[in-house]
Write a structure and sequence with these properties.
With 73 residues, the protein is of the alpha+beta class. The chain is 25% helix and 26% strand. Strand 1 and strand 2 form a beta hairpin.
Length: 73
């Protein structure tokens, strides 16, 4: 996951990623998450992301929900 465009020169923080409502600190964690364990992935744009996650989410947020978490609902 990489940022593209003019803002990538100025902005250094990566887009926040949450797995089952827990923020993931590094993208490399996704490599250990098998695709069969993922129920769905939601991408929030900057406007929606700042509404729910504050100003640090201005580039958007990736929300990943696992099958196990979906069963627990």
């Amino acid at each position: 996951i990489r940022r593209r465009g003019n803002s990538s020169i100025v902005l250094t923080e990566d887009m926040p990623i949450y797995i089952d409502q827990i923020r993931v600190s590094e993208v490399r964690v996704l490599a250990s998450l098998p695709a069969r364990d993922i129920d769905h992935i939601q991408v929030l744009n900057g406007v929606d992301a700042t509404t729910y996650f504050g100003t640090n989410a201005g580039d958007g947020v990736i929300l990943i929900t696992t099958v196990e978490a979906e069963r627990g609902r």
